[in-house]
Amino acid sequence: MSDLYREHILDHYRNPRNYGTLEPHDRSFEDSNPLCGDRVRIDLRLDNGTIADIAFSGRGCAISQASASILTEMVKGQSLDFVKALTADDLLDELGIPISPARRKCALLSLKVLKAAAYGLNEWPE
Amino acid sequence: MSTLHAHTRQFDARALREEFPILQRLVRGGKPLIYLDSAATSQKPAAVIQALEDFYRTTNANIHRGVYELSEAATLAYDQARAKVARLINAPDPRECIFVRNTTEAINLVAQSWGRANLGPGDIVVLSLLEHHSNIVPWQLIARERGAELRYIDIDESGRLLLEQLDEYLASGRVKLVSVTHVSNALGTITPVAEIVERAHAAGAVVLVDGAQSVPHLPVDVQALGVDFYAFSGHKMLGPMGIGVLYGRRELLEAMPPFLGGGDMIRTVTLEESTWADLPAKFEAGTPSVADAVALGVAVDYLQRLSMPAIRQHEMELVRYALARLDEIPGVTLYGPVGEDRSGVVSFTLGDVHPHDIAGILDSEGIAIRAGHHCAQPLMRRLGVVATARASVYLYNTEEDIDRLVDALLIVRQLFNIED
Ligand SMILES: Cc1ncc(COP(=O)(O)O)c(C=O)c1O
């Protein structure tokens, strides 16, 4: 059976946490993965440099959407400095599945969007 | 070399598999490889791989330039490969077959050379919604430069071309070129090329056909079809990557300006200007992929030995089987026409599972299929999908491959809780 599609990934895909949009929000960013059309938007509400509330919306493969759901849980209540320090490996470790090079961008799209929303850095995370 | 298959009436795909080294390997931790992505590129028989090695071991030299034995042998092998390709598609003269890198380059050659010389403001190029990006973007580039316009033949719900629309476009009297695919890489639709040519010619338009998905799978006769240009890629027909063919009618090719300038394509060069070599050299500037062309010739031999009608028959039976088996799976939606005008391509979706997830789960079962827009974004938009999953078969696929595909799709259903 598939290592990639472990139960917790499918659970986040079927029942995404922090799903939706925030109105009003302090920051919002949306991006897509041109290769496969995965799309993720993240809205943030900030309070004194911490993420008071976060929501994501989008569509795409299970890896991209589960990763966004898991990421929102990782950073809710954390500081922007925490977000700044988050690496690709931090998120991949949290996903806990073997991500092949071909699927890396699916898994990291949410982190890219979060970093762009939080402090304007729109690049694929290292 | 095995000549068994030419004499056995039964097409024995299982025996043929043995001749493809890559199909013997295991993937993803010990699973046998089930290769269902031949529309992207075909696997290569040992004879083709051997031909590449043999060329470099025994014959390698630059062509045309040497008077020594090796250069003569390399030149001869290159010319023989061209003759084999010409025979495969029944081109009247091998000099009408230009070696290029792939279908994409062949179409760009026509767009840049014929297009720049023949298209002007208000002229129309007719394409279709079935086209691969490689038969769209080159025309967008030259149309913008020359002030020409593009029109697209729409499709019906099953993915067949609406030829009435071609007639409407032709009736404008401004259509200079019709460029359509012979077989859709995304849906498997086989288009009525002979009919399109007849209508286009009656309106004075030239016809280019993208044969990337037809030459590997169907008998193709460029004279019977009446096409003016025909483009295809060696790598999809058992040959190496990096070699492809543009067939063009001689009078058209002779009237066209060169595409690339350089060595081998000239007759004389002065400081001010040059005159062009005869066909096909005029369109083959620089050192060509001689070894790849020679190996493509061996691939053509291989196909001819099996016979194109037999390959076509085998694929039709496989696709009929695949469509029936996939249709049994609740939640599967199949795209493309059902009938004789369908090649070995099966595009589908499964419930609301993203095609990349389907392909990802199949991959962990050792099954290689493609998921995405198949370089046909306008078509995906027309079908109202972001992407599809696509399984495509070739002469080495068997019903067992389809059974494995179906088993794996049942796993996908289970993982994603697809409702019946
Ligand atoms: C219908 C069609 N046209 C053109 C191409 C482009 O072929 P190549 O990448 O070999 O130039 C392909 C290959 O995917 C194709 O399927």
From TrEMBL, chain A:
The family database entries (CDD domains) matched by this protein are listed as: IscU_like
Give the InterPro entries listed for this entry.
Answer: NIF_FeS_clus_asmbl_NifU_N
Task: Kindly state a single biological-process term from the GO annotations of this entry.
Answer: iron-sulfur cluster assembly
Under Gene Ontology molecular function, one entry of this record is: iron ion binding
Q: Name one Pfam family in it.
A: NifU_N
Q: Where is the NIF system FeS cluster assembly NifU N-terminal domain?
A: 5-119
Q: Which residues form the signal peptide?
A: none
Q: What is this protein called?
A: SUF system NifU family Fe-S cluster assembly protein
| Natural source organism | Thermalbibacter longus
From TrEMBL, chain B:
UniProt record, GO biological process: cysteine metabolic process
Cofactor(s) needed, names only, are: pyridoxal 5'-phosphate
**Database matches in PROSITE patterns:** AA_TRANSFER_CLASS_5 (PS00595)
Pfam families named in the record: Aminotran_5
Function, please? Catalyzes the removal of elemental sulfur and selenium atoms from L-cysteine, L-cystine, L-selenocysteine, and L-selenocystine to produce L-alanine.
The protein's matches in InterPro entries, at most eight in alphabetical order, are given as: Aminotrans_V_dom, Aminotrans_V_PyrdxlP_BS, Cys_dSase_SufS, PyrdxlP-dep_Trfase, PyrdxlP-dep_Trfase_major, PyrdxlP-dep_Trfase_small
- Provide the coiled-coil residue spans: none
Q: What class of enzyme is it?
A: transferase
- Gene3D superfamilies per record: Aspartate Aminotransferase, domain 1, Type I PLP-dependent aspartate aminotransferase-like (Major domain)
Identify the EC number(s): 2.8.1.7
- Which reactions is this enzyme annotated as catalysing? (sulfur carrier)-H + L-cysteine = (sulfur carrier)-SH + L-alanine
Tell me which residues make up the Aminotransferase class V domain: 34-405
* Family per record: Belongs to the class-V pyridoxal-phosphate-dependent aminotransferase family. Csd subfamily.
Q: Name one GO molecular function term.
A: pyridoxal phosphate binding
Q: Tell me the superkingdom of the source.
A: Bacteria
Recorded hits in NCBIfam families, A to Z, give: sufS
Record keywords, A-Z = Pyridoxal phosphate, Transferase
Q: What is this protein's record name?
A: Cysteine desulfurase
